[in-house]
Amino acid sequence: MTIFTIVLVAIYSTWSTIVRGAQSGQTAAVAAQRSRIAMHTIEDALLTAQLYTENIQYYSFLADTSDPKFAYLSLTAQLPATFLGSGLYGDQTVRRVTFFVEPDADNVPQLVMTQIPFLLVTNSVITPTTLVRDVSLFVLEFWDTQLGDWTDELETTNQIPTMMRVSIGIGHATGSQQI
Questions:
Q1: Smaller CB count within 10 Å for the chain: N or C?
Q2: Banded model confidence at residue 162, pLDDT cuts 50, 70, 90
């Protein structure tokens, strides 16, 4: 009876370790996939950005990097039909897209995107889309041609940067995963 109990305990311990490992792997895979979708969404918005200096109040490119961990990015873009959430806006392809980090109900930072149709009168509430949960970093860097290096300050005004690097970190400082 004792030997049987020891074997059962060993089998249960092995099984519970396998289940915990599978859950950890699934959680990491979901976080990595959400980060890939977020990066693809930001890339699509940047590649289709519109800027007209004659109408800069609507077509401005805003990048706030004053917070060393969490940047803010807002731009007007003519988005493709495959852009995340495009089904909500019909044929309104030109929209102001904003990316920022804010805490959720549990005070965990999350990367959020909002879209506002351009030149469309609307009384509807802007619905934010959470791109990544448990964000530890959202950093924007811009290529400075004079320095020949990356900088966190956008020196040029009324221009879309020629090159831009976006970094998203997920997870906590202990055992964090940077993507």
A1: N
A2: confident
